[in-house]
Amino acid sequence: MEALSCGERRLGSEEEYAAPAVGVSLCDSAPLVWRMQDLRAVRAEGLVGALLGSLPRTPRQNGRLGRPLLLLPEEEGLLRERRAAAALPDRCQQDWGGAELRQKHEEEEKRSFEEQSVLALEDRKLALLRAMTGAESGATSADEALRRRLQALDQNFTFPQSAMAVQLSTARAGLSYCPEARAFLQAYGPPGAEPRCDARYQVFRDLRGRGFYLTSAGKFGGDFLVYPGDPLRFHAHFIAVCVSLDESVCLLDVLAVARLGSNVKKTVLLCSPGPDARVCYTSLQWSGMI
Amino acid sequence: MSGASGGEKRPPPNWILQHPAQMKDLQIEDSAQVHAAFLVYMDLTEVRRWKEVSCVKSSELQVVLLEAREKEGAPTLTILPLPAHQSVTHKSIRHVLDRGFPVLLCAVAADSTLVYQRMTDGLVTPDPPVGPFQDMGRRQHRKRRQQR
């Protein structure tokens, strides 16, 4: 798996110390992070993402999920801006990784099968011995019969493939099932094409720069959930709704999101990037006037 | 009213137009907003008995704003009354915030229901949940097992 890192390229960095870049796989434009060291690096940058995969030993639940990690488009953009991410190269043409793995697995299986058949034969002999000596005690003719039975067993015993116990190794590194893009990650659409998209990115960058952690706020009808620290340690304080300064918002929607925020003890934040690259925030709170 | 006294009786004068608040003098074209402002004015003065309630015209937004104090010695607030079906931009909210006072947005529904929302500049941390806190421990697990 170490040979994979030779395919990563650090995007034109001027610094001497180059922290290893995070390998991002694209699955139909969804940025995924597969490897453990990459996930750790992403979290160290203060980006949370969302785990998508199921854990091999506990598949039928949604409480604890496994790799890959899906990055928000804003998180991917931030990694690209900091030149900390690189697209993993296309491995379809060099399939040596897959073939070698398969061969290794088949060899291991064969070895395990041979071991298991020897052990199974011994088990059968022991069982036979116990059965014969238990049934009759002391008669010499029994020894003769036993010897003949054991001989027959040796000659005719076969261990069927279907009875073999197969061990699956779940601690393998280098998971990657999606075709990776060969080119570097392209820009996320022309700037200014969709004003909302850019507003979100500006707000994300500003809040991350202030030390907040952000995740997506689908459950609360906002754009981001803003945590004062790592989400594993804190509850979110704010629901961020990103609008541009001139965007007209229906008053009923403002009331709805403000009321929701007060019900879940979070402040609703209206965020708009201003003209001078600063972002202005307005906090909405329940007035307490019935 | 059925004309029993012979002559046509004149309808009583509209008391809203004659109210000393005199919002109509501010010359705002959006009559729905002026009406909303009037309802909020009445709520603050007669129902909640706030002090020093006055009207101000905002020329950039072309709306009537109210300024009031909740009681003597309390800080002045700016109130922005708006009909609930209208839309608002973040820019206009910032304009009102730029006046320097804390802002109350009041949405006036068609049935005259009033909803007040506080708006502040910056990031205001919400109040933390109130204790005492009880450690749930295994209670949730036990509940789930009983349900099965």
Write the layout of secondary structure elements.
The complex is a heterodimer of chains A (290) and B (148).
Chain A: E1 22-27, E2 30-33, H1 36-44, E3 50-53, E4 66-70, H2 73-81, E5 85-87, H3 96-135, H4 140-156, H5 195-209, E6 213-216, E7 224-227, E8 238-242, E9 248-250, H6 251-263, E10 267-273, E11 279-286
Parallel strand pairs in A: 1-5, 8-10
Antiparallel strand pairs in A: 1-2, 2-4, 3-4, 6-7, 7-8, 10-11
Chain B: H1 31-47, E1 51-58, E2 63-69, E3 76-83, E4 87-89, H2 90-97, E5 103-108, E6 114-121, H3 139-147
Parallel strand pairs in B: 3-5
Antiparallel strand pairs in B: 1-2, 2-3, 5-6
Strand percent estimate of chain B = 25-35%
Count up the helices of chain B.
Answer: 3
* Unreliable stretches of chain A: 1-18, 173-195
Principal-axes geometry of chain B comes out as elongated
Bin the helical content of chain A.
Answer: 25-40%
**Class by alpha and beta content of chain A:** alpha+beta
Oligomeric category: heterodimer
Radius of gyration of chain B, Cα only, in angstroms?
23 Å
What composes the largest sheet of chain B? 5 strands, mixed
Largest interface: A-B, 32 and 32 residues
Active site (chain A): 227, 235, 266
GO molecular function (chain A): nucleic acid binding; tRNA-intron lyase activity
EC number (chain A): 4.6.1.16
Subunit structure (chain A): tRNA splicing endonuclease is a heterotetramer composed of TSEN2, TSEN15, TSEN34/LENG5 and TSEN54. tRNA splicing endonuclease complex also contains proteins of the pre-mRNA 3'-end processing machinery such as CLP1, CPSF1, CPSF4 and CSTF2.
Quick structural overview:
Chain A is built from six helices and eleven strands.
